[in-house]
Design brief:
Bound molecules: glycinamide ribonucleotide
Strand content: 15-25%
Order of helices and strands: EHEHEHEHEHEEHEEEE
Structural class: alpha/beta
Helix content: 25-40%
Strand order of the largest sheet: 3-2-1-4-5-6-7-11
Radius of gyration: 17 Å
Mean pLDDT: 97
Largest sheet: 8 strands, mixed
Shape: globular
Low-confidence stretches: none
Length: 210
């Protein structure tokens, strides 16, 4: 069975959604470990509560990004996962790290990429007057939030929405979308090809939309 390792920094609501999905009888993978760069991340308690092994690599203890990523890579290799799922992991990974794990690293980002890479995505969508907003799941490549997109879920932006209400609506979609995309990856239906995402062996010219 494919093994998943999940990296977190914060609340872990996406982690919780993945834990619940992985408990479904026909889910095709096991979560073997959860790692965090934040010792106090509430996500760690959620993992422990589900009896999933956890580890912490605190970035403050390392002198450089390379050292941090080296320590993280060592932990990852120890668990030998097939897929590494970033679920609210708020550290930028080095090029070498990302290249070594090409096709095995998934990220979820709270915008309709390529719009709004980086932070404050909900406020930026509001400021731009966007009528549609949402979430993207993509393979991680050297380009920040720029790797090939597998799938997106959209929400409508209402006249009375704030950054907070948008965050809630987007997160509700995240919790549906991420378990589905992770499932497809573990079933081998979604793969990263030379330049684009392959879905059932065919190049995906546009993200799938939920
Ligand atoms: C999620 O909304 C995720 O999209 C976002 O952080 C949140 C984590 O929530 N990720 C990023 O902004 C990545 N740059 P969670 O800890 O409750 O899953």
């Amino acid at each position: 069975r494919p093994k998943i390792l999940i990296l977190v920094s914060g609340e872990g609501s996406n982690l919780q959604a993945l834990i619940e999905a992985s408990r479904e009888r026909d889910y095709p993978a096991d979560i073997v470990a959860v790692g965090s760069n934040q010792a106090k991340a509430p996500a760690l308690a959620k993992a422990a509560h589900a009896n999933i092994p956890t580890f912490v690599i605190e970035h403050g203890r390392y002198g450089s990004r390379d050292e941090f990523d080296g320590a993280l890579m060592q932990e990852i290799r120890r668990h030998n996962p097939d897929l590494i799922v970033l679920a609210g992991f708020m550290r930028i990974l080095t090029e070498g790290f990302v290249r070594a794990l090409r096709g095995q690293l998934l990220n979820i980002h709270p915008s309709l990429l390529p719009k709004y890479t980086g932070l404050n995505t909900h406020q930026r969508a509001l400021n731009a007057g966007d009528k549609l907003h949402g979430v993207s799941v993509h393979f991680v490549t050297e380009e920040l939030d720029g790797g090939p997109i597998v799938a997106q879920a959209q929400i409508a932006v209402g006249a009375d929405d704030s950054a907070e209400t948008l965050a809630q609506k987007v997160q509700a979609q995240e919790h549906v979308l991420y378990p589905i995309v992770v499932r497809w990856c573990c079933e081998g239906r979604v793969q990263l090809g030379a330049e684009q995402v392959l879905f059932d062996g065919q190049a995906l010219h546009q993200p799938l939309v939920l």
